[in-house]
Write a structure and sequence with these properties.
The complex is a heterodimer of chains A (about 350) and B (about 70). Chain A is about 70% helix and about 0% strand. With about 350 residues, chain A is mostly helical. In chain A, β1 (about 255) and β2 form a beta hairpin. In chain A, α1 crosses α6 and α3 (about 70-75) packs antiparallel against α4 (about 80-110). Classes of the chains: A mainly alpha (about 350), B mainly alpha (about 70).
Chain lengths: ~350, ~70
């Protein structure tokens, strides 16, 4: 019994993966704590992220047409597999909660200060829930529409900021100590190039042979945009970029051409609205789908609204300081789900010679 | 409180009739349990129960054990 009847093409998969990787990344840029070396950190993190991507892709190639929940059940047996799937669902739920709070924080801090926090959460969850109820095809088409806009407007702001650009801001290169740099690289790889979600999406692509190429292409494209954003922010803001909560926003604020072409920071807000919504909708979709598969339901639609209700119930950070502190704690939790369990699954699957030629 | 009850009743009315008509009993049970959990949580918060933040707990568990070169 197929829960999801939709099929997505390889190009739509590229857009979905980009949406997943960008998400919050170009508003809260990864690696801002190493000041002027953030762009180097992202370049290294790209290669670290590719390793993670390859682990997931080899799992997907070994079990074609199976989602994460089914793979766990196959490899670990019935009881333990269900337990691991439940942990994964809780982790997806956790990420989705963090996303919706990040999203609401941005608009609540910068634009609508007097509006109650929960209004943003309810509105974005309603829109995301409607997208999730319509299935993966609709989310993929949203991504096809939104991601090019994000790319074009980011590059336009970069060009407009060229006159404020100062190359001296990049000196001294590699100032950060080696362990700290390594930590930031790892954090960025886990935070921005985390490919866990694809195991829930890849089964719905129509050309299974092109999956590997699409995902790796998408990783490079999203990394290039993140590097572009990091270089723009460092060149314009310099060392001050690391003290702002939203450096991109502050950088774009400086655009001023004769009092006419100014206040372009609304572009950043619009981009964030688009990409944050995509990332949130995708994670929300994956949570409900995995939940429905775990419980062996015939349709995932009834789970959408209850999970949405639980997502709007703010159980995660209550202020922006906690958000910043949590960035150094999240990798420890994410490592379990992104690195340890997938690698273990691969090893056990190869030892047990799974899958054994069943349909 | 009336608002909370109204919203949850609306969600239930939106989802349940179709499920019951198609005799999807397992889906009905899963939906009801999750919705009831949400209802209980919102009601408790309405009556002034303070929930600890999950991220706060995780930070307090892990943060003190981090080495010094990881920035605060």
């Amino acid at each position: 019994m197929a829960l999801e009847k939709g099929k997505i093409s390889s190009s739509q998969l590229i857009f979905l993966v980009i949406a997943e990787m960008l998400g919050v990344g170009f508003v809260i840029p990864p690696g801002a704590t190493v000041n002027q070396d953030a762009w180097i950190a992202i370049i290294f993190a790209l290669f670290g992220g590719l390793l993670l991507v390859l682990v997931q892709l080899s799992l997907a190639a070994r079990f074609p047409g199976k989602t994460l929940v089914r793979i766990s059940e196959l490899v670990y047996g019935n009881f333990l597999g269900k337990l691991i799937s439940l942990l994964y669902i809780l982790f997806f739920f956790h990420i989705a909660s963090l996303m919706v709070i990040d999203f609401s924080n941005f608009f609540n801090i910068l634009f609508m200060i007097s509006t109650p926090f929960i209004v943003f959460m309810i509105l974005i969850t309603l829109v995301a829930a409607s997208a999730v109820r319509n299935g993966i095809e609709v989310i993929a088409r949203c991504a096809q529409f939104i991601i090019p806009i994000v790319f074009i407007s980011t590059i336009i702001t970069g060009i407009l900021l060229a006159k404020d650009f100062n190359l001296e801001n990049f000196q001294p290169v590699l100032e950060a100590s080696a362990p700290k740099m390594a930590w930031i690289v790892y954090r960025t790889a886990i935070f921005s190039f985390s490919p866990l979600h694809f195991l829930m999406i890849i089964p719905f692509t129509n050309k299974q042979g092109e999956v590997k190429k699409s995902v790796i292409k998408a990783t490079f494209i999203s990394a290039s945009l993140l590097i572009f954003v990091a270089v723009r922010n460092i060149g314009v803001l310099g060392i001050t970029g690391s003290i702002y909560t939203y450096p991109s926003f502050q950088a774009v604020r400086l655009i001023n051409y004769g009092e006419i072409l100014t206040r372009l920071e609304i572009l950043i807000a619009l981009n964030f609205m688009g990409s944050g919504f995509l990332q949130y909708a995708l994670t929300f979709y994956i949570t409900t789908l995995a939940g429905a598969q775990l419980l062996n339901l015939r349709t995932y639609l009834p789970l959408v609204l209850p999970i949405g209700v639980l997502l709007t119930f703010q159980l995660h950070y209550y202020n922006i300081v906690e958000t910043m502190e949590y960035q150094d704690v999240y990798p420890f939790i994410a490592t379990v789900f992104h690195v340890i369990i997938p690698v273990m699954t691969l090893i056990i699957a190869s030892i047990r010679k799974l899958p054994r030629g069943e349909s | 409180m009336l608002g909370i009850i109204a919203v949850f009743t609306m969600i239930a009315f939106f989802e349940l009739p179709g499920l019951i008509r198609r005799k999807y009993w397992r889906e009905v049970i899963a939906f009801s349990l999750l919705l009831f959990l949400g209802f209980v949580l919102y009601t408790l918060r309405h009556f002034g129960v303070k929930f600890p933040s999950i991220t706060r707990i995780l930070i307090d568990l892990i943060q003190p054990n981090l080495p010094g070169w990881i920035s605060k």
